[in-house]
Amino acid sequence: MTAKGASSGLPQPDSQPRLDGLFADEAGNGDVPECQTCGACCSYSSEWPRFTMESDDALDMIPLQFVSADQRGMRCEDERCSALSGRVGVGTACLVYEVRPDVCRACLPGDYACMTARAAHGLE
C-alpha cells in the first residue's frame, strides 16, 4: 500500500484557540469533548480520512477491511469511517486506534476540526 497526499476535507482555520496545550472550544470556555462519547470526527466526511505521510510499513498495519478500495484512505460507509464502532454522540471506539493514520491522530479533542464535526452532528 502506498501513502498518497490529499486534503483533509475539513475547513482549516488560520488560528485555533488553545488552552493548556489543548484546543479550547469555540465558545472559549475551555470545555473539551470526550472522544469516546463522541465519534463525530470519524463520521463527518468520507473525504477526510485520507493517508498523508504514513510509511508503507505503518499503512500495512491497518487491516485491509478498513482501507478504501483505492488504498488512499480509510474505507467509509456513507460519511462514517468503517473502523468506528458504536453510536456517535453516545459511545464510540476506534477499531484500529493503535495503528490509526496520521489524519486521525491530528484531530484533537476540542480543536477546530473536532468542533466542526460535532456541529455537523448537532453535538455541542
UniProtKB/TrEMBL annotation:
Residues 1-23 are annotated as: Disordered. InterPro entries: Puta_zinc/iron-chelating_dom (IPR005358). This is YkgJ family cysteine cluster protein. It comes from Aliirhizobium smilacinae.
